[in-house]
Amino acid sequence: MRITYLLADPGIGVFGTKGASVHVQEMVRAFRQQGHEVTVYCVRRGDKKGYESVPQDLADLPVVEVPVQAASGTAEREIELQRTALRMVELAAAGSAEGTAPTALVYERYSLFSDAGAQLAARLGVPLIMEVNAPLVQEQLTHRSLHHRDEAVALTERALAGATVVSCVSEPVATWVRTAVPAAAAQTVVTPNGVNTERIRPAEHTGHTARTAQTDPSFTVGFLGTLKPWHGTETLLEAVARAQHPEKDSWRIEICGAGPQLESLRTLAAELGLAEQTVFHGAVAPVDVPGVLTGWDVATAPYPVPAQDHDHYFSPLKVYEYLSAGLTVVASGVGELPAVLGTEGDSTADGSPAAGTGTVPGVRVGQRGVIVTPGDADALARALDLLAGDRALASRLGEAGRADVVEHHTWTSRAQDLLALVGTHTPAEVGRP
Questions:
Q1: Fold classified for 2-194+410-429
Q2: Which pairs from 312-315 meet CB under 8 Å and 24+ separation?
Q3: Among the four residues 77, 114, 200, 344, which has the most C-beta atoms within 10 Å?
Q4: What region holds the Glycosyltransferase subfamily 4-like N-terminal domain (predicted)?
Q5: Residues of the chain with CATH 3.40.50.2000
Q6: Tell me: the pLDDT tens digits for 174-188?
């Protein structure tokens, strides 16, 4: 089957370094591994013009770049985004008529000012899977600016209502879709992020030597992600500074990612006396992530306390990658993370571990990882102390996490589930149990 993948978001490069780029690449891989032919139409190939990291196994992927034309301001740029989506439809429709077979399925990652997928699918008479990762209109209004609000809302409604399946990364995102676009409610399902368990493997399966307290007494704590306030990276640095473990001065902190907080985090590390222990890797290409993770003992997702009017709607891509690498994960108790790490039912409404669920304040040891109170550097410090002092516990959690993602959370299974929905259901039936 020939699949046309549309990516009209100017902030995401197909071969970029962000988690969104990983999501694109892995869904394409999953479709291709099942024997399907994929062509991608996108606004940009890499994070920036001329900067891209193309994995060897995707070097032959057909990618058609449809750049956004220069605009003098935000309002004009929003209009150019709409024009770009229309050009994408025309190019993809023409491309469908070429090659060995016409397009049989359209897959689009929801982007502001684009209903390209709905238009293309209707023109070709084929199904559309619309992937929704965030309530973009709401995000834009809250964090940025949105001049053509009515157009953004109308295009979102057409994009989602025109889909055969609306695939949302989390239940809060699905709730937003069902509320904002009632016409799309019946075809809306939840498809969490996944992980490529063949690409990201524990150290002992990659040719690296497995690290134990006996063979290597050092302790490395890491973070992977963009350096923005909603990831809470500063809490990790503060936690290491407050840790009480007798060997904490030899701990190593590795921070992988780029973003507006980079310099402030460097400054904070110096102020906390951690400059010599902290390595800032900058942006790490997806192809290099597995190698970086093999050197860590503990991986963190130290999200802050969510705003009262804001659901933690992200699906934890980085956490699935941590688990696939066999690492011990320490994460804040927000969104889906307690369930992913096997502590569901043990957290209160603000993400704090419930009273009586553990012997360490603010810390809950689950079946596959450790949950801590969001934004609480002291709780995170206590969790790190616990794991540094009990390597056997850390090892058990890492093994259990790896086994869980292999069985339940691969990108291949995510793609198979979506294709099964398209193949066996009419739109009105998709969202039903």
A1: Rossmann fold (3.40.50)
A2: 312/172, 313/134, 313/135, 313/169, 313/170, 313/172, 313/173, 313/176, 314/134, 314/169, 314/170, 315/133, 315/169, 315/170, 315/192, 315/193
A3: 114
A4: 19-199
A5: 2-194+410-429, 203-408
A6: 999 999 999 999 999
